[in-house]
Design brief:
alpha/beta; 8-stranded mixed β-sheet
Length: about 280
């Protein structure tokens, strides 16, 4: 089985490592616009062979793990190159635009739109890690538009590396993920910005940053090159989530200014219910 990974960073690289472990007979080929990243991936064993788009005709599976804006141009070209039995998977954080862009492609049946809900704040081949997807959810969109045998091929890989599957339409995916992922990244970036703007002494930040601050601002270490296109593609939903979030912050501020600390307590106590929800998921 020849598997091509386009984009050998955190997600593509981690998928490659898990596939190598679960499917030892697979040959893993890497393609990346960043030659340094590709060389690093080869040295780390994230991929086994360097490759090019011209070789995609030999692929059984192609996993596209690149920024979502670049996907819009690259995935149609990938589908043009592959043969009729090749499965092409994307792992981007937005789904509506890519599904719309491919709806009339002659090889639409070869494409599966997925979003593994997994990751870290790090990027590049060095960030790839085994087991990243164990017990994580993988959202699949428009599964009915993918050839059944190719669906089976994809599900075999996902189940073997320990992922749970959930099916969703692209529009619903983008709306839900704006709340559950995109908003948390914006919050983290803006918390980091607030502290940097006000705390000019870097040593003070280092010395006084507790575990709460560190965990809350962790996502601010994420790649702007990856996240800016995500926010752009999901602008409408992200703006909606921001408006609701800002309203909640403004309400909290008003309660503070009016010394209504019992109401603040009640708000926080009600929000503690999130623990039960997340414990139920885990």
């Amino acid at each position: 089985m020849n598997i091509f990974i386009i984009g050998v960073g955190l997600i593509g690289g981690s998928l490659s490592l898990d596939i190598q472990e679960k499917f030892p007979n697979a040959s893993i080929f890497g393609i990346d616009a960043n030659q340094k990243h590709l060389q690093e991936a080869l040295e780390l064993g994230v991929v086994q062979h360097e490759s090019t788009f011209e070789d995609l005709k030999n692929a059984d599976i192609v996993i596209v793990s690149i920024p979502v804006d670049v996907q819009l141009a690259v995935i149609p070209k990938v589908l043009d190159e592959v043969n009729d039995t090749t499965l092409v998977i994307d792992v981007g954080s937005t789904k509506e635009l890519i599904c719309e862009a491919l709806k009339n492609h002659p090889k639409r049946r070869n494409f599966l739109a997925t979003h593994p809900i997994a990751g870290t704040e790090f990027s590049g081949p060095n960030a790839a890690k085994k087991g990243l997807f164990l017990n994580k959810t993988n959202i699949i969109c428009e599964v009915e538009k993918t050839a059944f045998k190719l669906q089976e091929k994809a599900l075999s890989i996902f189940s073997n590396i320990g992922m749970r599957i959930r099916y969703m339409d692209p529009k619903s995916h983008d709306k839900h993920i704006a709340y559950m992922s995109h908003l948390s990244h914006i919050s983290s970036f803006m918390l980091g910005k607030t502290v940097i703007d006000k705390e000019k002494n870097e040593r003070d930040i280092f010395d006084m940053a507790g575990s709460g601050f560190e965990s809350t601002v962790r996502l601010a270490k994420s790649s702007p090159a990856m996240w800016t296109p995500i926010f752009e593609q999901n602008k409408e939903n992200v703006v909606e989530t921001l408006e609701e979030y800002i309203n909640n912050l403004q309400n909290f501020k008003e309660l503070m200014m009016q010394d209504k600390f019992q109401e603040i307590y009640n708000e926080m106590e009600n929000t503690n219910y999130i623990k039960q929800i997340l414990n139920g998921i885990n």
